[in-house]
Amino acid sequence: MPPKSKAVAAAAAEPVAVEDLFSELHRHIEAGEFPQAVKVADQVLAAAPGDEDAVRCKVVAHIKSDATDKALAAIRAAERLPIDLSYYKAYCYYRQNKLQEALEILNGQEETAAVLQLESQIYYRLARMTDCLNSYEKLQKFKIDSMDLKINTIAALVAAGRASEVQAAMKAQKVDLTTRALRDARSFELAYNSACTLIENKKYSEAKEQLDLAKRIGKEELMVEDYAEDEIEYELAPVSAQLAYVQQLQGQTQEAMETYVNMTNKKSGDPSSLAVATINLISLKGTKDAADSLRKLDRLVEKSTAPNQLQLIESLEFKLPPRKKEALYSARVLLLLHANKIDQAHELVSGLLGMFQDSIFPILLQAAVHVREKKVPKAEEVLSRYADKRPNNSKEVLLALAQIAASANHFQIAADSLSKISDIQHMPATVATLVALKERLSDSNGAASVLDCAIQWWKNAMTEDNKLDVFMREAASFKLNHGRDEEACQLYEELVKSYGSTEALAGLVATSARTDLEKAELYEKKLKPLPGLKGINVESLEKTSGARHVDQAVKVDVPEEVKKQKAKKRKRKPKYPKNFDPANPGPPPDPERWLPKRERSSYRPKRNKRVQVRGAQGSVSKHDAAATNAGGASSKASQSTTSTKAPEPPKAANKSRNKKSRR
Questions:
Q1: CA-CA distance, 209 to 226, in Å (whole number)?
Q2: Which pLDDT tens digit goes with each residue over 97-152?
Q3: Can you tell me the distance from the alpha carbon of 409 to that of 355, in angstroms, rounded to the nearest whole number?
Q4: Burial label, 573 (beta-carbon count in 10 A; 0-12, 13-18, 19+)
């Protein structure tokens, strides 16, 4: 290798200016060349050790390159420097799904806009929707006009079960969620999240319209970016799955099933969308082909290294929302029960109880397994224990307990369970069920009390859909049937005064006739006369002995034209067999020709000419013994006596002989 010239060596020895390195670093960052930016940042740190801007640029470049491990290594290397990199460290933990560690780091930070945004994302992944929405409310004071922030707020409200508040929240931020406004906004994510809100509010037709809009906007944007057809289908898989779900809710099960099957077979979608399509497809199929459904779910679930612990495959564990995880595990347990794999269902439920300690669905699944094993008392015990420990979060548990107990004829347990759910005591279904259970328990007083409480609640309720008249009518009918005539009369009287119902007036007249005849006559005058009854003399009708049964048919005058039409009916010639001469029919057919031969009067069974000899080989029958002469009677009599006492032949010989006789 030839030696370098002095000019080249001098140029190499001259240090590059830090300003030039920062210019190059800025150029790489603007161009999105983050690996090159890391190299230039190292050069800056070599020239100016501990430079804060260079350290931050290096950490951010690693994060942008999805190299969070290298970013954390750079943060640890700069711990001795007076630089606060806590936010970047928390963000790296968030990207690695170490959510609790990230949250602990942010707890001591100042509540800046960046910190609050990251905190809200962490809470969303942890399914702590109340804390997530609190963070978004704190962000309002920064007056950030970001469409992404508004989209995330909608998603958090829907996930928190507060979809009814989305319209008001977006209106406060001057966001119009009508289909026309969304078409003008050209935001794929906003249209999709707005459609999810409509689905939660059970406005399926409008949701379908906005999902179609979101799909069209997304397809146009991806086509501009030169995406291939299969890539576009992959990117829009969440919209396709949601559209199929809306079709499923609207009763278009065949169309929904075709979409789910197409997605799962082609695998045209991200893992989360494919998991949702698989779960919904299994719910549509129900118990049909449980083995195939289990195989589909097995692709999504894998066993953990810890005992009795389960986890989803790596691509789903941190991307699937908690509600969808619960649906997936629930579907697997129910399929195992239908496939009679009780032991595997027990094992899975045991793992879920440890994984979802604050959730209700593992308790419900545990009770379902016990019911499948016909251990109803054990299922009732599990549900009762949970309801006693967490009374504020046990509505679904108490409903399940009531259903299981009622199915097992444990009516008292069922009634007690329903009575503990205070917010549904006034609902028609609850009242009807409680009254039926009380009647089964022969507690008419308790049933009447349930109806009275419901009536009192609806009297004080300020709702548009008031059902007071329905409850009063049903309560009056119930009390009338159970001998509470005065109470029933009061209810009917209130109905007449408040609603003017003709039915209630008729009930009041019928009830008052039992208790107060004058009142019955007074209200009877208010009944409208029935049409067609003016010419009927009631007194003469009472004197008659009533209607009599007439045996003779009633004669009806038939017009002459009808008689002529009947007479004009053409008589068809009878159809005879082939080659049959009706003039010479021959002898009449045998009337017993359709009967089996053995049932005909002419049947004579064949006589069996063979004489069956029963006994051991060489024995003499009674017929032969009677044919012998008198001289040898004494000697042969002894022989015949001995022959009759001989043992019977084996049964097999008799069977074979019987079979031969049948032939």
A1: 26
A2: 899 999 999 987 889 999 999 999 999 988 888 999 999 999 988 888 888 888 99
A3: 34
A4: exposed
